[in-house]
Amino acid sequence: MTQQRIGIIVGSVREKSESGRIAEYVGKLLQKLAPDVGIEMFRLRDLDVPLWHEDKWVAGSEMQAFWKPISERLKACDGFVVISPEWAGMAPAHLKNFLLMCDGGELAHKPAQLIGVSSGMGGAYPIAELRMSGYKNNFLMWLPDHMILRHVVKLFASEPPTALDEELTARMEYGLEFLLETAKAMGPVREKVQKLHLYKTGM
After folding, report:
1. Based on the structure, what is the number of domains in the chain?
2. pLDDT tens string 52-109
3. Full-prediction pTM beyond 0.85?
4. Number of Cβ atoms within 10 Å of the Cβ of 113
5. Beta strands 38-43 and 5-10: pairing type?
6. What would the DSSP string read from start to end of 69-118?
7. Which CATH number is 119's domain given?
8. 52/63 Cα distance (integer angstroms)
9. Is residue 200 part of a domain?
10. Which structural domain, as residue segments, surrounds residue 94?
11. Does the pLDDT value for residue 161 go beyond 90?
């Protein structure tokens, strides 16, 4: 049996982002739950993905060559955690562009735990936005539960952890355990019924 791999997609492109800090925390929780799991980090700041345009569909184009190694890393993952900050009440354009680039089956029918991050009391709008349209032509499967980490600067930042830290960690572990088990279950389903060559776009 091959090692299970979970990709963590960090939607912020800031140099020092709370989304990135939460991604590291999530990675540690995943390895606590499943010590053998492989963690693949996709930091959009580091990837520097260009804006999608039609060259993505042109054989031999620079854009295809750029995207291929990222695509292969994504395809090797069994499930994902997607971490989205809220910028001006929206999911960042970089994150939406990244999801748009994933039209080659990289994410198709793989479960994803969605985590919203807010410096204040927000964070709900990016969740709604990504649930509404962030899956359409990449066929990513958002899990029913999501999390919103509000006033994130104060979270998971003290020793010993606060009561709120412990409460949120327990909830996050529940979601991540569900992600790991769903990722295992979906592998045989994809092998049996996935027909992306026939149905390349969602309705």
Report:
1. 1
2. 999 999 999 999 999 999 999 999 999 999 999 999 999 999 999 999 999 999 999 9
3. yes
4. 25
5. parallel
6. HHHHHHHT-SEEEEEEE-BTTB--HHHHHHHHH--SSSSTT-EEEEEEE-
7. 3.40.50.360
8. 9
9. no
10. 5-193
11. yes
